Amino acid sequence: MNDLFVASALRSSFYKNKLAQRTIDSWDDIPFTTKEELRNASAYDVLGAPIEAIATYHETSGTTGTPTPSWYSHSDVTKEARVILKSQLNLRKDDILLNRFPFALAIPSFILYWACEEVGATHIGVDKASMITPDRRVVEIMQRAKPSIVAMLPSEAEKLFEVAKQLSIPFPTKGLRALFLAGELVSPKRKAYFEKLWGVPVFTFFGSTESGGLFVSDEQGYYRLNNAHVKIEVVDENKNPVPHGVRGYGVLSTMREGMPLLRYYNHDLLEIRDADPTDPDQTPILIHYGRDENTINCHGALWTFYELQELIYSLDQIPLLWKVKQEGDAITFILQYTPDQEVSSESIKNEIYKRSDLDADVLIEAIIPIEKLVGKPAYSKYVHVERV
């Protein structure tokens, strides 16, 4: 099986050069691929197939450095769609999927569109990066078109719910049966919060622009390691493998035709757990704790994004939006509550300390003004003929 990953990687100039003149007697002899290497590589060096076999080109956002290129072949399109179609989301021909992911270079929106095409489902594109479809219009489209599945970033789920509340539109809208969330970590307590808020099951998607879509969570929220085209390893700070049940750093290998990856150290914090002995499905489970850059370190204690979410979504009053800021040893929670929530920074500070022993400051302020959330579209077509 490991030979297939190596053979896939060697289709690209990047890996031919990287592995040239190296003696590879075992899997452990293969060096890790780093983000920096992918960022510095030519887009055509990482290409793993002839250009005539390529369907789409994508790039990472570039928020943490130079964007990383990523190619998807026509064969990859089918495989990516089937990751969705084989999941417990159970996308069907009679579904109407409202797709809130941006189509500007990111990959989740395309994978969902490909899945809809494969199964014959109806697709509604409401790109979050487009001025034509602000939150208010998305809620109005939901009311008119009655999608059965809404796909979006987790933070969009919170914003759209609040916009609907401001417009006195009850959720869930008629026919809605599931949320499909990707692009941000969703911890168990955050998942439970969304399901209570929207009244439908939540499914999450694990992957990235570089790796493609790898796993869809099951109804319990678990990522099962059931994708034969993907190999997941977890290593410690010294790059040594850790046993199941121990958190470490993710190393991913994929056989994607357009851009294969071989032992890609992507800075995700992961843990592989054995399934519960009583579980009918004994496939190992992947736990995602977020990226190492999304952690805080308070007096020697590491808080992952997963653990921060578990704290926030266990509060008696859950904020609409939130951020955590660290300056030295000083931790500040910046929380935005809705107009109908009566809270004080002191009470939240005390609750956080009681639940976590974190002696953090709390600021309650608007991160995104409510009036901006419910604003009408700022974009309109250019008018050539005007009557006054």
Outline the structure in words.
- The chain has 388 residues and is of the alpha/beta class.
- The protein has two domains: 2-291, ANL, N-terminal domain (Rossmann fold, 3-Layer(aba) Sandwich), CATH 3.40.50.12780; 294-373, ANL, C-terminal domain (GMP Synthetase, Chain A, domain 3), CATH 3.30.300.30.
- The chain is 27% helix and 26% strand.
- Strands 1, 10, 11, 12, 13 and 14 form a six-stranded mixed beta sheet that branches. The protein has a six-stranded mixed beta sheet with strand order 5-4-6-7-8-9. It has a three-stranded mixed beta sheet with strand order 17-18-19.
- A hairpin with a 2-residue loop joins strand 15 and strand 16 (301-303).
- Helix 6 (135-145) packs across helix 7 (154-166).
- The mean pLDDT is 93.
- Residues 51-249 form the AMP-dependent synthetase/ligase domain.
- GO terms for molecular function: ligase activity.
- This is Phenylacetate--CoA ligase family protein.
- Keywords: Ligase.
